[in-house]
Design a protein that fits this description.
Order of helices and strands: HHHHHH
Distance between the termini: 60 Å
Number of domains: 1
Shape: elongated
Helix content: over 70%
Largest sheet: none
Strand content: under 5%
Number of strands: 0
Radius of gyration: 25 Å
């Protein structure tokens, strides 16, 4: 009887340890199910596509590790969408600025200072809106930390 040496495969380098820690707690099939669920937004359809029973899918959705992974995947998608929105907003703001600036200076508008004030007000509005959005995200983060601290304090008692 001949024995073959064990194959050792190198591990992938982890880009985000917190993601690896959470997704490392679920099986690859569960991770695939969550990805499909986020695409189709229907538990039954996602389970049907992956050929697992609805009962299994519902049971998986009650597991804390799966719920954490789902929350993480949803947050990643929200972050990606927010980044796309911010890039689009940058582009739109730049286009508006250029168009207004060209309209004022190329056509010899009678009151270019007024137009410059309007452009400055538009840019300030965009900047202020971003700050408000960033503050909303920070408040949500702080509330989540406060909630987890309350849970930890309750568990210690």
């Amino acid at each position: 009887m001949s024995t073959q040496p064990a194959r050792i495969t190198p591990m992938k380098q982890v880009k985000r340890p917190e993601k690896a820690a959470i997704l490392g707690q679920i099986t690859p099939k569960q991770e695939e199910f969550l990805e499909t669920y986020l695409l189709v937004h229907d538990l039954g359809e996602a389970s049907e596509q992956l050929e697992i029973s609805d009962r299994t899918a519902r049971r998986w959705m009650t597991l804390p590790a799966v719920q954490q992974a789902l929350a993480l995947l949803r947050q990643e998608r929200r972050d990606a969408i927010q980044n796309k929105i911010e890039r689009s907003l940058d582009l739109a703001t730049e286009l508006i600025f250029r168009k207004l600036h060209a309209a004022v200076y190329d056509k010899g508008y009678a009151d270019p200072d007024r137009v410059d004030k309007y452009i400055a007000m538009l840019l300030k509005y965009v900047h202020d809106q971003r700050e408000v959005d960033a503050l909303k995200v920070r408040i949500e983060e702080l509330e989540a930390v406060a909630a987890s601290n309350v849970v930890d304090a309750d568990e210690q008692e």
